[in-house]
Design brief:
Layout lengths: L9 H7 L9 H10 L8 H6 L2 E5 L2 E4 H13 L6 H22 L5 H14 L4 H10 L4 H26 L3 H7 L7 E12 L5 H12 L4 H11 L14 E2 L5 H8 L10 E3 L2 E13 L6 E12 L4 H11 L7 H6 L7 E6 L6 H8 L6 E2 L3 E2 L4 E12 L4 H30 L2 E3 L1
Length: 426
């Protein structure tokens, strides 16, 4: 099954682009000295920096490229072994470039600039501001420009080669939407959600890697009981049966691809990382409801997950029956203490969407935090608005199925290219 990977997709890049870390610019300075020909002899350190680290057939990956990709992935807060993931991504890039050259697939500078401008725009930044964030973190603009060029070219290649065979049939769309005669789909999941910040990132990533290798339900349940921040830890991380359509749209396709007992790749949330284990999947008669909008209220309490903040959160829960009751709780306070939203499912932050999936109207959660764990979120589901008819929803499902298949074709092709390539580490 194809795993959900935390890669340098547009969405993840923008979501994390403004996280700044204090990263030394010493290596970057040496790189610029060579790249822009500043008129002095390169140091031995710089020579080593640009020495080959890996060869993929006749293509070379330098130490500098590895360093730059690692910096970029650190900026994105990519979970897992960043050095290993940077190495694997760059090898894949070389394999992709070989195929792109073979088929004459190219993109011009304007397309690349548009792609980078779009990334910047999603973070409400101009391209110049976006590149400034990269420079502040020791990342040369050329690094992201090259990555964007490969990404756009590879997407165009995959579309030309696989799009026609990747499009789903009407029956396949019906089945994915839970509208076929056999009914909808419910899933039985276990979850483990671990808070992450700059101080504990290394330990959390190592822990998540270890949990991701577990093979049994009991082992995952034990880890959730001990370490999960979600309320479900009291039940070993086990969630009840839920309609697939209640999950955030980004997570639905990931969950559907799991085998029984299989665990997802790390799912990045705001201030946390999540893992989900599949315990069961079943079809139900009559189809499942899809939602046009979900309304929720979030009340913010200082102190994060401290005993005092959790006690205050429980005290407020005992005083409220509906979302409207929060207005009385928040009266006289700064307006930012209460946030009430009604959003289409795809616009809801992933961590909030996951929590809302577990709730019925007027139920609450004290699992989430904001402000790097310093603020506790008291979350209540106000209600769900049913979707009337198919319309855009059907098109969205069709596009998602198409993209899943193209991704699968892409991975299969890359696996074959790796098997045929001569990859040597220096």
């Amino acid at each position: 099954m194809q795993k959900f990977l935390t890669t340098v997709s547009s969405a993840s890049l923008i979501r994390h682009a403004m996280h700044k870390f204090s990263v030394s610019a010493r290596l970057l300075g040496a790189a610029f000295a060579l790249t822009f020909g500043l008129g002095f002899a390169p140091s031995l350190e710089a020579q080593s920096l640009f020495a080959p680290a890996i060869t993929v057939d006749s293509a070379v990956i330098t130490n500098y490229e590895l360093d730059q990709r690692e910096r970029f992935m650190a900026l994105l807060r990519t979970p897992g072994d960043i050095a290993e993931k940077a190495r694997e991504e760059l090898i894949d890039d070389r394999l992709k470039l070989a195929i792109l050259d073979e088929f004459g697939i190219e993109v011009d500078d304007e397309e690349i600039k548009q792609g980078m401008t779009e990334l910047a725009g999603r973070a409400n930044l101009s391209l110049e501001e976006f590149l400034g964030v990269l420079r502040q973190n020791g990342i040369a603009p050329e690094t992201v420009r090259d990555l964007t060029r490969v990404g756009i070219s590879w997407r165009n290649f995959l579309g030309a080669r696989y799009l026609s065979q990747a499009r789903p049939t009407e029956e396949e769309i019906d089945r994915a939407m839970g509208q076929a005669g056999s009914g909808g789909v419910q899933v039985l999941l276990s979850e483990l959600i671990v808070p992450i910040n700059e101080q504990n990132a290394s330990q959390v990533e190592q822990f998540i890697q270890q949990v991701g290798k577990l093979k049994s339900y009991d082992a995952f349940s034990s880890a959730a009981t001990q370490y999960s921040a979600a309320d479900s830890r009291n039940n070993g991380g086990r969630l009840p049966w839920m309609n697939l359509t209640k999950l955030p749209p980004q997570l639905q396709a990931v969950v559907l691809e799991l085998d029984l007992g299989e665990i997802t790749e790390p799912v990045p949330l705001q201030g946390a990382v999540a893992l989900f284990q599949m315990r069961g999947l079943r079809e139900i008669v009559g189809g499942t409801q899809r939602y046009a909008a979900i309304e929720y209220a979030a009340y913010y309490i200082p102190g994060g997950r401290s005993p005092e903040a959790l006690a205050e959160g429980q005290k407020i829960i005992n005083q409220v029956d509906t979302c409207d009751d929060f207005y009385g709780i928040a009266q006289g306070q700064d307006p930012s203490v209460l946030d009430r939203q009604s959003l289409v499912p795809g616009e809801i932050p992933r961590d909030i969407g996951i929590e809302l999936a577990k709730l019925d109207p007027n139920e609450t959660s004290l699992t989430l935090t904001r402000n790097e764990g310093q603020t506790l979120m008291l979350l209540m589901l106000c209600g769900r608005t049913a979707e009337l008819g198919e319309g855009q929803s059907r098109e969205t499902v069709a596009n998602a199925l198409t993209q899943q298949r193209i991704n699968s074709y892409s991975q299969s092709l890359l696996n074959q290219l790796r098997a045929d390539a001569r990859i040597v580490e220096k």
